[in-house]
User: What shape does this take?
Amino acid sequence: MHDREPVSRLIRPSEFDECLRWGLMQCEPSRTAELPRSDRARCPLLSSGDRQTDPRSIIAAGTFGPAGLQALAIVRLVAGGSATVVLLASDERFEASGSSADQLAGLLRPLLGQLREWEVTFLQASAVETSQAERLRRCGFQRIAELSILFLEPDDFAEVIVAARKGQEFGSKRQLGATWGWVPIAELGAGGNGRLASTLSATFRQTLDCPRLGRLRTADEIVRGYIESPTLDREWSRLLQLNGQDIGCLLLSRHVGDEPREDIEARRGEGTGPLMELSYLGITPAYRGQRWGFELVAEAVRVARLAGATGVALAVDHENTPAVAIYRFLGFRESEREGVWGRRVSG
Assistant: This one.
């Protein structure tokens, strides 16, 4: 632990709390610095040789020099063969090193090796400050998108449903006499996951939402992440049908604080219902431009209202102009922005 040359290795469970305290002291005051506290209370810490059985397990690695810990990385496993960096911290000695980029790569090496053993293929991270983004870049991450974090107050639910329906009717190009409706994912029955996967894949084609993600993950991997998410609510989520054909998808989740957003949590309603997250909505290419997006959002808010939700939160690619325009037209308010970065585990 105190060799002359810095050594990077996995953190043992007995060391974790002390290392976490050190890591939080190195962080700039930001939301990112708060993540491991909630993770530690809820997720088991794994070490080398452990079997990954809990989809929200965390694993950590540190770089140790003669004076002790110099850098720390904490990663949480999520659904669909992916993982999320919840903390990446280093001290001044580490940052001042002329080879800090190589040392950051060395810090991740034991983590990446363990993730490969668990068949994790993709590693994601977020950055608010420039310094965080620079650390990620030096670790081999690529910038995927800048996300706008939006929130809808429960007092606005009824008004949004009306506004969405009006937005859908204005300029609609739908055929007269067409029949459309919703199919809850929970009612899809045998083969339901296959049908959901097929519709999701179709909505990804020519998508404007985080298109750079396609350079790092296959469509099958992205679909698997949505379907296997432990927070996906299959009673709330729906497929949109037109004349018996699946043309759209609405995925709604229970926001369980995987990434606590203090500004959103503080603005929740006084009720005891869930905070709903609009995880994904999409329309197949042939039916875009026909105002179905308004219908999807209206249905999401209608479900939230029936569930007694204390708010609806979502994240959208800031460059996805059509989607951003719909949300803002309907009264969603931006609470913050964050950069999303990613890399292949095998890269």
